[in-house]
Amino acid sequence: MIEFRNVDYIYEPETPYEMHAVKNVSFTIEAGEFVALLGHTGSGKSTLIEHFNGLLKPSSGSVLFHGTDIFSKEVSMKEIRSKIGIVFQYPEHQLFESTVLRDVCFGPKNMGLSEEEQKERAKAALTSVGLDESYYEMSPFELSGGEKRRAAIAGVLAMEPEALILDEPSAGLDPRGRDEILGLIRKLWQERGLTVVLVSHSMDEAARYAQRVIVMHEGVKKFDGPTREVFTHAKELEEIGLGVPSTVRIFSMLRARGEAFPADIDELSVEGAAQALLTHVLHKEGGHV
Fold first, then answer.
1. Which of 103, 206, 209, 220 has the most CB atoms lying inside 10 A of its own CB?
2. Is 141 exposed, middle or buried (0-12, 13-18, 19+ CB in 10 A)?
3. What sign has the CA pseudo-torsion 201, 34, 220, 215?
4. Is 212 in the same domain as 277?
């Protein structure tokens, strides 16, 4: 669905403030994938996502959507931005209308849809994020932090995108709020068949939700592959300050102590790790704990 070909991006080129933020990055994201884009602040990941729907144009290289360069003359940038929705960090800061329903209608309105179609899409989007009709006439500023974030995501969903790009969607939320938002994103991916790119610096979030991981470091794509495979590079990830998920780290420590576990255990999820540990203990104790 989305392809980056040798994308470079330089801020303020040929000035004393020149900064090479993205360096010769290439990858392809297939329709229906759930990809985590990982890296520390300054790694280039936030700059990279602004290329997905043309908010930034590459200094060199190209970005393709369904095989067509998004900056070619035959492509409507308005359509690209409706098909590839970006939810920026702290999206609730972008809520501005007098009611939740009017706010979620904003995207469909800009698409030129009728008022009836705007409301139909907005209501469907709000339902999909767990906000029922009791929220329609509320001010967005009356909502809790998690509810504001849900409303902001609904505003993007109302445009019926094919891909959803989320920049640190759990930032600033408490553990329960983080689980709810990330669970919602996974539910939308599963039920709507969306292509999802989750931008994060959390190894645990990537391990729990993503099928595939792309790691950025100093503007360069460092790793790209299935989640389990990328997290086998523990030493290299630690060297760039990322590390591995806590569950993977625990099993690595246990193996170093001589404990043996099957190669096919699910050590990426807390549930899978807990089950593997329980099975291991039961086996060592002869079936008794």
1. 206
2. exposed
3. positive
4. no
Residues 223 and 279 reside in one and the same domain: no
Judged by phi (left if over 0) then psi (alpha if -120 to 50, else beta), residue 213 lies in beta
| 276, 231: one domain | no
Same domain, 239 and 250: no
**Integer CA distances (angstroms), 163 to 84, 85, 231, 256, in order:** 5, 6, 25, 41
Print the domain residue range for 288: 245-289
The SS3 call for residue 222 is strand
Determine contact, residues 69/54, Cβ cutoff 8 Å: no
Q: DSSP strand E in 122-192: where?
A: 163-167
Collapse the DSSP code of 101 into the 3-class scheme (helix H, G, I; strand E, B; otherwise coil) and give the result: helix
CATH of the domain at 30: 3.40.50.300
Q: Both 177 and 272 in a single domain?
A: no
78 and 11 housed in the same domain: yes
Residue 246 has pLDDT above 90, yes or no: no
What residue type is 266 in one-letter code? D
Query: How many separate domains does the chain show?
Result: 2
**Which residue in 269, 236, 264, 237 sits closest to 250, CA to CA?**
269
Q: Are residues 213 and 252 in the same domain?
A: no
pLDDT in tens, 255-265: 778 777 776 66
The whole-number average pLDDT for the span 46-67 is 96
Q: Does the pLDDT of residue 289 top 50, yes or no?
A: no
Q: Which residues lie closer than 8 Å to 214 by C-beta, 6 or more apart? A: 27, 35, 36, 37, 38, 221, 223, 224
Greatest Cα-to-Cα distance within the chain, rounded to the nearest angstrom: 70
Residues 228 and 256 in one domain: no
